[in-house]
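Hello forum,

I keep getting stuck at the same step: I have a sequence, I want structure tokens, and every attempt I make locally crashes halfway through. Rather than fight my setup again tonight, could one of you with a working pipeline run this one for me? It's a single chain of 536 residues.
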Amino acid sequence: MIKLAIVQMNSTVGDLTGNAARIVDFSRRAFGQGAHIVLTPELSLVGYPPEDLLLRDAFYSASQTALQSLAEQLSEFPDLHVLVGHPLMRNGKRFNAASLLVNGQIRSTYCKHDLPNGHVFDEKRYFEAGQDVLVFELGQVKFGVAICEDTWNEQMPAKARDLGAQVLLILNGSPYHMNKQHLRHQVMRDNVTSLGMALVYANLVGGQDELIFDGNSFVLDSQGNLQAQLKHAQVDMQLIGFADGEPVAGTVEPELPVEAQVYEALVLGVRDYIGKNGFPGVLLGLSGGVDSALTLAIAVDALGADKVRAVMMPSPYTAEISLIDSRAMVETLGVRYDEIPIDDCFRAFTETLSKEFAGLPVDTAEENIQARIRGTLLMALSNKYGAIVLTTGNKSEMAVGYCTLYGDMAGGFAVIKDIAKTLVYRLCAYRNALSAVIPERILTRAPSAELRPDQTDQDSLPPYEILDGIMQLYMEENRPTDYIIAAGYSKEDVDRITRLIKINEYKRRQSPVGIRVTHRAFGRDWRYPITSRFRD
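Reply #2:
Ran it on my machine without issues. Output:
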């Protein structure tokens, strides 16, 4: 029986030495458990996606040196076949490649055929398409090799099958969005197991800027039955046996409810962004509202209470219950907490501007001054102590511009930037089901920016159920306005929300990078012009 180790590893972009050390460590463990093959994810040696590092010749030179060194290090495991993803420069052309390392040698190399160029992918910017097919035999089982997008149609798998492949080994850098695993299973059944091949799908895990790679590696037999599945959002490894080209059933990690999936993805994203970039910790403005409460809970779960600091900055309009609930939450979580009132700062600003504002009504100008004072204070603390500011705005607010440039948008990482307001509440309920950390009143009181007396979000916006529904159809699903109105939303609300989405593009372009958990986020896969007069 051939034993194959599925390595679900967390690579760091550009850390060739560290990534190689991880591959060696996994290989050592796998070899000790009797593995014959080790399968790592896409571009495992250099991290994924390297983006414009792939335009630098020095990156390819360093990658090739690291690959050769890795092959030599793996020679301590006799006859172990290790498949490693890496970039390749060949005859002046660049490829997304996978090499089979055996007994200190690079035995063979496969280059990715199908290069994705939509959503968050730009691979045609960097790579040429490969042409050759790689099939190797071990223990009377023939294994084909593919890389990620190669299996999202059946042309390349069919070529491997024509050369006798019984099992397709797939190196993947497949980013997470909600319910992505169902889609992966179905596509693999349509394009691989329908051809009579079993498959092993090894996916990357970890956070890379706004992208989350969720792992969830899996094995399907030639009938499309799930035989093994690795953990969600965690480094993992599992050995699978193959007899006569079919996998022996292994451990199938259960699929998590969507709230658990998303929450763990957010925790992973914060942990990796802070850790891989070397920040000593984080700080955030705590308001007594639901968004900052969720962000605080995620930060503590990701980093530990000792690396998180919360700052409450009450203004003349801050409700006493906001202070009470904030104090209760930080006491439960055990984080450092400070209160810095902004009354004097706000008074100084309004007095300085009193001649300019004379005779004009109080409006969003005064409201935004408060938000910008808070942003300035947080950034000052960040500069003094080195901790990065986590912003707390959600996707619903970002969509319609219900946020303040250089105010609540000021910071270094936007944790819930892709989380709609209605999902924010679901995630809070999920986190409280694990252990009660968010005071119940935060979840039941009307949401408010507290920038004027008795303010609520619904003074300026439709109910979030309506806003989020329109946003999902228009922004995420790309539906026309007529379709959205026919779905039951009023023309007034649809016109208003879609207009706000369009005119606030300039704000979103200036927002911090944030974690992507939907199939279309405001970021890499949303590229609308700021200056445009087109209307549906």
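The chain is about 40% helix and 20% strand. If your local run keeps crashing, start a new thread with the error log.
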